[in-house]
Amino acid sequence: MKDILWLIQKTLSVLLKNKKSLLIIISLPIIGTLISFSIYGNAGQGTLNIGIVNKENEPIANDTIKFLEGLNHVNVSKVKESEVEDKLTSKKLDGVITLASDFSKSVREGKPEHIEISSIKGDQVTGFIKSYLYNYIDNIAAISKVAGTDQSTFDNMYAGYQKSSFKMKTETLEDTSKNKDMTNQTMGYLIMFMLFSAANLSGHILKEKENRTYFRLLSTPIDGKKFILSNVGVNMIILTVQILITILFLTNVFHTNINMPFIVMMGVLMLFALIAIGISLVLVAFSKNSASANAMQNMVIVPTCLLAGCYFPYDIMPSAVQKVANFLPQRWLLDTIS
Q: What residue intervals traverse the membrane (predicted)?
């Protein structure tokens, strides 16, 4: 045990003497938190810019557009179908609603279809629009079912519905989605930094072998197991520091609700730290030298973090990719936190 503690102390002293390494260890979690804050910190109740592609000129379709134009915090503009992809990718529009041919007919028959909502921002946009739009369309469909094939009855009921007035009492609730998104994004960056930090620290094993220090240590009472355990100990200390910095920055500097007790969050992240160390040791075991280890960690860490949703929201990925992500430990951690 004394030998392991001595090796841990020796390795930490070498790391702390290197100001560049110390700066990287401390600054990486802060940088990840700042990036997340820059993305979600100013996300308030803004105005959604919604485009409408109307492929028919029927009263039901036109009234549906008027309904959307009357919603608060929604700016509606008509666009051509050929412009949809460009306006979405350039972020000029948050979403596009396409009313295809026979939309009005399907609503009149009581079976609404031929409507499509497109957005690259996922449920953040589509969920808000769907909640209002689908409720409006379902009400008209219900009128259609009651009126049946009697067009005169439908016209009277539809006109009454359009002219009806409702009293609504509104209350403002705290939006917790921003804190959740910021926490998840910060954890995504922290996962990546933890994996790279663990891989770099485990890479010292190969460097010690390359400069023959490892073999000189083996000539003493220190064996290979103690050397590996000391590396794991150093890894846990460094990763724990990064975890603490990240959580303290989130809670005390940005006053973000992390959605779980501090101790629970620490415990979950510490478990992932062990997984990160295990992955890094596997990479070292299959590497002949430090150069191949660096190449291998880039080939493993970056793609798996990308698939797991560490860099962008998991919900916007195709279902096939989401199924692959469910096998990755990064995804397990993000699901646990969210």
A: 21-40, 187-206, 227-250, 262-286, 298-314
Residue with tokens 């000189």: 216
Query: How many residues in total does the chain contain?
Result: 338
pLDDT block averages, 10 residues each, the chain of length 338: 82 79 78 73 65 86 86 84 84 85 86 84 73 87 87 86 60 55 79 87 82 74 81 89 87 78 90 92 87 88 88 80 88 86
**What does each C-alpha distance from 228 to 12, 214, 235, 254 come to in angstroms?**
14, 11, 11, 38
Residue pair 294/203 in contact by the 8 Å Cβ criterion: yes
Which tokens sit at 131?
A: 């909640």
The C-alpha R_g of the chain, in whole angstroms, comes to: 28
Residues whose CB is less than 8 angstroms from the CB of residue 139 and which lie 6 or more positions away in sequence, other chains included: 161
DSSP secondary-structure letter at 44? -
The long-range contacts involving 17-26, CB below 8 angstroms and separated by at least 24 positions, are: 25/197, 25/238, 25/241, 25/242, 26/241, 26/245
Please name each of the domains of the chain with its CATH number.
Answer: 2-41+176-337 (no CATH), 48-163 (3.40.1710.10)
- Residue 75 has, within 13 A of its CA and on its CB side, a CA count of 7
| pTM assigned to the model | 0.60
177 vs 237: CA distance, rounded Å: 32
Which of 97, 125, 123, 99 lies closest to 112 in space, CA to CA?
99
